[in-house]
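Researcher: Good morning. I'm working through a list of sequences from a screen, and I'd like to move beyond sequence-only analysis. For each chain I'm collecting a predicted structure so we can compare shapes side by side. This is the next one on the list. No need for commentary yet; just the structure.
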Amino acid sequence: MDLRYRDPRGHVLNLGYRWELEGFDPSLDEEDRLDYNREEYDISGAYRISPRVDVIGRFTYDHTNSRALEQLAGVQWNDCCYGLQLVWREWVDDNDTARIDDDFTDRGIFLRFVFKGLGGVGRDADSYFEEAIPGYRATQF
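Model: Good morning. Structure tokens for this chain:
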């Protein structure tokens, strides 16, 4: 279940709740089936500070296992000649199994700098931001 709000000025707020039932998908391998019910809460948003500056954030929490699944905070600056994105992210890598004992936390700081008309350095972050923050539309570089 998700609630989403998108302001015409570019602000976005999302609230989400997910409940996953034990062993719900019988098509999965045995190690991929949950042997417990899982509840997750998700809050994300973006705020357009000015026509040139956006900030974004996301927090996803696994209530069942009392752990944060993802935390994200970022800022984007867009000017006539260049653009800059700086993001801090921490997430749980689940090793593609339902067991949590083989999970580990990963984190990173990601920087993207773009000279308009010349291309960018680093991975294209716009699509990730738009996936992470539903309703968010990045300022175009």
